[in-house]
Task: structure prediction
Amino acid sequence: MSEKLSFAFFKLRRMFTIVFICCLTIVLFISFDIMMAKVRDIKRRVDAKTLVKALDLYHDEYGSYPVSINDWRGWDLTCKLEGGEAGFLKMLKDNKLIDKMVSDPINDATYYYQYQKYAAGDYGCANSFYILQIINFELPTTDNGAGSCSGLNWVDLAPNGWTAQGFD
Result:
């Protein structure tokens, strides 16, 4: 009888070990996905700071911000959404203000960067200005940047993204 009990205990212990290892593996995979999402979100923030700095250097050199090529509803996009293209990035790269083309780590229809230059008077702003946006972060964020005119708060267009605005 004790041999049967010992064998049953051994099987039960083995089953608990397998279940524990499976649960641990699932937790590790979930943690890895969250960690990678954080890494991609950090890259997005670094890209945004790099682009704002490059846009300011462009402004210092040429007296205004680059015009957008208006391929996709007026926006220059880092992803190829309906023919959109990030012409402002090409201008920054051609003027050696960035080393390489910058794009979102995922860079699809959900995660991308966009830029548009507006004329004075648009949306109630007295001066011409640009809007640079990270459309989406993977993890929820409370730092959404800033950018608004009397006619529109640009941050509202990317509620889980980030917005920068610069005035000529």
Remarks:
- The first strand starts at residue 76 and ends at 77.
- The chain has a mean pLDDT of 88.
- The chain is about 40% helix and 15% strand.
